[in-house]
TrEMBL record:
Residues 11-119 form the HIT domain. The lineage of its organism: Bacteria, Bacillati, Actinomycetota, Actinomycetes, Propionibacteriales. It holds the Pfam family HIT. This is Histidine triad (HIT) family protein. Signal peptide: none annotated. CDD domains: PKCI_related (cd01276). A motif (Histidine triad motif) lies at residues 103-107. The active site is at H105. InterPro entries: Histidine_triad_CS, Histidine_triad_HIT, HIT-like, HIT-like_sf.
Amino acid sequence: MSASSPVEDCLFCRIVAGEVPAEVVHRGDTTLAFRDVNPQAPTHVLVVPQAHHADAAALAQDDPATLARLVDAAREVAAAEGLDDGYRLVFNTGAQAGQTVFHVHLHLLGGRDLGWPPG
């Protein structure tokens, strides 16, 4: 199964298309990174594929190369943000895990001590 077309009512598809404003911090050929509007750390950036995939599992099945590109884009953003002491990458997959926008997105969190276990 290949990447699907943009989904009309998907917030992140609309951000990728430029229909909804976002503070974009990185744009790649297949990825987009922008600041989370409800940050949970001093640095909280969402990295999304430009093509719509519902969650990380769907992306891994449909387009594993883009999954790798998300992580690489997060690495680039972390370096640009000065997160030399470390950062956390998180995928929430499914409503029970806290996913609220069903367009796969990788959370990049940093800029403070991040305890374990998380929430």
